[in-house]
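Project standup — Tuesday

K.O.: blocked on the structure for the chain from last sprint. Re-posting the sequence here as requested.
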Amino acid sequence: MSRFQILRTLMMKHKYQLIITYLLFSLEMLGGLLRFYFFGEAINDIVKGSYRGVVVLAVVHLSYLLIGTFRHMYDTRTYTSIYTSLVTKFLSRRYNKIQVSKLSAHSTLAREFVDFLEHDLVYAIEAAYNIFGSLIILFFYDITIVGICLSILVPVVVISMLYGRKMRRLNKNKNDELEKQVDIIATGDHSTIRTHYNNLRKWQIRISDKEALNFGFMEIMVLVVVITSLLVSGNLHNNSVLAGSLFAIYSYILKFASGLDTIPYTLERLSALSDITRRIELQSDDFPQEQPVIKNERFLPNQRKVMATV
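H.V.: unblocked you, prediction finished:
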């Protein structure tokens, strides 16, 4: 099964739990996105001598807080349930079929799929809210800034795709070494164990270096967006624009920029899942299935005997 088939199967097996948690997360992100607009309106109202905007801001923020708190509590119950059912079925089907060292490593790697649903897919959804939500709201403030933001997306996507390919190779080499860990530790040989952990350290450093370089590139793109917007936008140089509106515009530019940071990270995680899929070879029968319930069924004596032996 490909990584997308595995993720789709996991999502379909636990669709109701995931629908609830992603719905709660979407509401949380919507509240987080709108906070800056209402913050700006609250500033404008205070300047005018009114506290109406402050009250609205407080209601929006409290709603965001309550939804987020409940969502975090529900998340843990959902994803621990998914992982427990997945890894139990996976291990029981493969026990005695492959080396214990690889089985141990693969059970750890299987967790990556659940982590992708719990963390990485959530980051991707958050990035979509930050990028497209910010662009929609900025459109009503200043369309020039929207054009600047869209022009930055092209180089970011290209660099992110190249970054994802490099990370795929590095993750493959790291996981190759990780699969040997239990067997190497079992040898008790000091030199072999040291070499193994030095190799893991080497691959982790190379991965970290790539992440650092990508971070630097993304921050340069953020700086380009912010400075260009400040210089080009007509509204920002308009004396009639309110202080709250200036705050909201700048905040949504930063929100858009934070969404850009998530693009290469998401591609990196998809690359890692490709390598994990190749190693653990999850099959359809690794996923828990509901047992059929037979009601009001009558069996002949020989049929009962067959059912008992099964």
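K.O.: great, moving the ticket to review. The chain is about 85% helix and 0% strand. Residues 52-94 form the longest helix (43 residues).
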